[in-house]
């Protein structure tokens, strides 16, 4: 999925871009309203900061909406409620306020893409995509690797589903056991290692599940190595 990120604040843009790329999005970053409007795309969703150096983000929002149906998520440091209302009136699909986490932004993107689905093929969303090889259809609880369905045991799916909520984040054994197995798990966590091993085997090359000694695990989306 291609994201047009319109944000003049470089540290914010860089960290958002890093986070989105980690989740398998392609990100085109521009830092002015003019560059956003002259960008030829194609892109599937726009993340639009309202406070831009050259134009008011709301005008950019209106102009983009005038051209088509691409979902627009407005990001703003302004806490003013009127911005939110005006942004939505001008055709934005959703709104996030700074400071925000990458997870929140991704949740919003996925939500607007799901809503946008009937609007046209460009916005076809469906399963969540991780890198170029792995997709997870969370509604149907189905996992595909290179388009082929991967057969996972229920807890393997639960573990993958949990770890892919935030690729790159270190999750402790306790957090994982609580989330995937039982809310009050005090027993040995050997079963976790068995399930991690199964996921590594079944999803080899698409994800890397790194063990962090004494703490837990960290899932990374494998870089596209050009294997066809
Ligand atoms: Ca700004």
From TrEMBL:
<keyword id="KW-0238">DNA-binding</keyword>
<feature type="DNA-binding region" description="OmpR/PhoB-type">
    <location>
        <begin position="125"/>
        <end position="221"/>
    </location>
</feature>
<dbReference type="Pfam" id="PF00072">
    <property type="entry name" value="Response_reg"/>
</dbReference>
<dbReference type="GO" id="GO:0000156">
    <property type="term" value="F:phosphorelay response regulator activity"/>
</dbReference>
<dbReference type="GO" id="GO:0032993">
    <property type="term" value="C:protein-DNA complex"/>
</dbReference>
<keyword id="KW-0902">Two-component regulatory system</keyword>
<dbReference type="GO" id="GO:0006355">
    <property type="term" value="P:regulation of DNA-templated transcription"/>
</dbReference>
<dbReference type="Pfam" id="PF00486">
    <property type="entry name" value="Trans_reg_C"/>
</dbReference>
<keyword id="KW-0597">Phosphoprotein</keyword>
<feature type="modified residue" description="4-aspartylphosphate">
    <location>
        <position position="49"/>
    </location>
</feature>
<dbReference type="GO" id="GO:0000976">
    <property type="term" value="F:transcription cis-regulatory region binding"/>
</dbReference>
<dbReference type="InterPro" id="IPR016032">
    <property type="entry name" value="Sig_transdc_resp-reg_C-effctor"/>
</dbReference>
<dbReference type="GO" id="GO:0005829">
    <property type="term" value="C:cytosol"/>
</dbReference>
<dbReference type="InterPro" id="IPR001789">
    <property type="entry name" value="Sig_transdc_resp-reg_receiver"/>
</dbReference>
<dbReference type="InterPro" id="IPR001867">
    <property type="entry name" value="OmpR/PhoB-type_DNA-bd"/>
</dbReference>
<dbReference type="InterPro" id="IPR039420">
    <property type="entry name" value="WalR-like"/>
</dbReference>
<dbReference type="InterPro" id="IPR011006">
    <property type="entry name" value="CheY-like_superfamily"/>
</dbReference>
<feature type="domain" description="Response regulatory">
    <location>
        <begin position="2"/>
        <end position="113"/>
    </location>
</feature>
<feature type="domain" description="OmpR/PhoB-type">
    <location>
        <begin position="125"/>
        <end position="221"/>
    </location>
</feature>
<protein>
    <submittedName>
        <fullName>Two-component system response regulator</fullName>
    </submittedName>
</protein>
<dbReference type="InterPro" id="IPR036388">
    <property type="entry name" value="WH-like_DNA-bd_sf"/>
</dbReference>
